[in-house]
Specification:
By secondary structure, the protein is of the alpha/beta class. The chain has helices spanning 17-29, 53-63, 76-82, 89-100, 150-157, 163-167, 186-194, 205-213, and strands at residues 4-10, 34-39, 71-73, 105-111, 132-136, 174-177.
């Protein structure tokens, strides 16, 4: 049986319940051997991050502690950012594929909102040569009517596979989970914290403690 890994990337500024729920959902669905959480280094499509790279990595470790499956925080994008290099998903996937070999099942997890700009990702059409792409969407979400760039809608629709197919093949398939609805944004959380609100319904308790101890997102 091939090794199975799911990758969950993001800025995690800060990590919240939505991230954890997304990771847990696909870890169970795909029966992965490991969930690898990858904080961005220099995200070329996002503004300046508020928390430091170390703080974001620390918060990820706290958020995913004690899960019933293996979780690792992968710092390769932070390492590239420290060298002044931008964060491109294609580089991350190439490195992980080289590490795990050609037979491993690698699945990249993402929210449906990311599909709107997927054609702006660096070498986006090459990404399917390294991983599967699993998308979490609200009930009733339809790629044909979601206003996606036509090339993205075609690429994802033509590659749709089952969880079993994804578990047992290395890359190249897509999956749309239409029973996953978590509406939380890091921007919303930072604004709440800046107003002095606890936001404990949005953030794992250990992460909230860390934020308070380090006086993050206060201004």
């Amino acid at each position: 049986m091939a090794y199975r890994i799911a990758l969950l990337g993001g800025s995690y500024d800060p990590v919240h319940h939505g991230h954890v729920a997304l990771g847990e959902y696909f870890a169970a669905l795909l029966q992965v051997d490991q969930l690898r959480v990858i904080p961005t280094g220099l995200p070329w499509q996002k503004a300046t991050l508020k928390a430091s790279s170390q703080q974001r990595a620390d918060m990820l470790g706290l958020a995913f502690a004690g899960r019933p499956f293996s979780v690792a925080v992968d710092l390769q994008e932070i390492a590239r950012g420290a060298q002044g290099l931008p964060t491109y998903t294609i580089d991350t996937l190439r490195q992980i594929r080289a590490e795990l070999g050609p037979q491993a099942s690698i699945s990249f997890l993402m929210g449906a909102d990311q599909l709107q700009r997927f054609d702006t990702w660096h070498e986006w059409q090459s990404l399917f040569g390294y991983a599967h792409f699993c998308v979490a969407a609200r009930p009733g979400y339809d790629m044909a009517t979601a206003g996606l760039p036509p090339a993205v809608a075609e690429a994802f629709s033509s590659r749709l596979g089952t969880p079993q197919q994804i578990r047992n093949t290395p890359h190249g398939l897509t999956y749309l989970a239409q029973d996953f609805a978590v509406d939380i944004s890091a921007t919303q959380i930072r604004a709440a914290l800046q107003r002095g609100e606890k936001a404990d319904s949005l953030i794992p308790p250990l992460v909230l403690d860390y934020i308070e101890q380090h006086h993050l997102y206060k201004s």
